[in-house]
Amino acid sequence: MVLIPIIVLAVVFFWFIGQSNKLNRYVVSIEESKKTVDITLVKRYDTISEMLKVAKAYAKHEEKVFTELVGLRQGGSMKDTNQVIANQNDVLSQIRAVAENYPDLLSSEQFLALQKEIASENEDLAAAKRIVNSNVRVINQEIVSFPTSLVAGFKGMAKFDFLEEDLQGKRDLKDLNYNID
Fold first, then answer.
1. What is the SS3 assignment for 91?
2. I need a labelling partner for 50 at 20 to 30 A (CA). Which of 10, 102, 141, 168 fits?
3. pLDDT more than 90, % of the chain
4. Coiled-coil regions in this chain (predicted)?
């Protein structure tokens, strides 16, 4: 008779440990996929820097654009990452605006190659963001589902933020790629 409560407690204890470990693995998956986004942002930052160098050679008096390059290359939290992406999109929009005023720049082989590289990096970034958001969706579903929500609450876990889709930036970047073909 005394053995039944001990068995029940042991089952609950091991279930709790199992759920806790599962949530920990999901967090690791999110961190790993977020690193892929960070790597893509660093590559994109470097390409934007190269685009600015090329543009600077054509438009020396457009100093405002060249001094506002995003200082961060990767974000720590999801909110930081969303801000880095938005800042990079803003800089790309500014480069596009400068390029429109300099037809020689738009036809430059180096600038065209960098536009292609940005387009490729944008595709990589979109794919990496989908993976992060998929991982976030999985853990968020676990966090809000009973009885795993009890374990998440005990661990102090809250729902994770998603990486945002910047539709304005996407429209701007689509316009940026009009000379790639």
1. helix
2. 168
3. 47
4. none
Instruction: Of 130, 131, 139, 133, give the one whose Cα is nearest residue 158.
Output: 139
pTM: 0.76
Q: How confident is the model at residue 86 (pLDDT cuts 50, 70, 90)?
A: confident
Name residue, tokens 């993976």.
131
In the three-class reduction of DSSP (H, G, I as helix; E, B as strand; rest coil), residue 108 is classed as coil
Which uninterrupted H or E stretch holds 33?
helix 3-58
d(CA 54, CA 3) in angstroms, rounded, equals 77
Q: Whole-angstrom Cα distance, residue 30 to residue 164?
A: 15
- Whether 50 contacts 114, CB under 8 Å: yes
CA distances to 53, 135, 177 from 103, rounded to whole Å, are 16, 44, 15
52 touches 69 (CB < 8 A)? yes
Reduced to 3 DSSP states, what percent helix, strand and coil does the chain have, rounded to the nearest 5? 80, 0, 20
29's CB contacts (< 8 A; 6+ apart) are: 135, 138, 139
> How is domain 3-179 classified at the CATH fold level?
de novo design (two linked rop proteins) (1.20.1440)
Reply yes or no on whether the pLDDT at 3 is more than 70.
Answer: yes
